[in-house]
Target: 4Fe-4S ferredoxin iron-sulfur binding domain-containing protein
Amino acid sequence: MVEIEIDENACVGCGSCVDDCPNDVYEMDEAKNKTKVVNADDCMACLSCHEICPAEAMEHKNIHVAKRLYIDRRVNDILNKII
Model:
């Protein structure tokens, strides 16, 4: 399971990660005006939240970056001829 840590000192409370997450992993903590993790089990580690965070306040642990499984051999052949 992905572990998500949000640095509350760094979080600016913009809510970009809340809006951007396709799986509703986050909500705004209205009392603190900060993002909080509410559905960590639903995180698919796409890291779109991490990329959009202007404060770089998120850290994701235990992720496994997917390798490119699809290889277009025709395109690779063309590129190899050019290079």
The mean pLDDT is 87. The beta strands are 3-6, 26-29, 34-37, 58-61. The domain at 3-82 is CATH 3.30.70.20 (Alpha-Beta Plaits). Residues 4 and 43 are 9 Å apart (CA to CA).
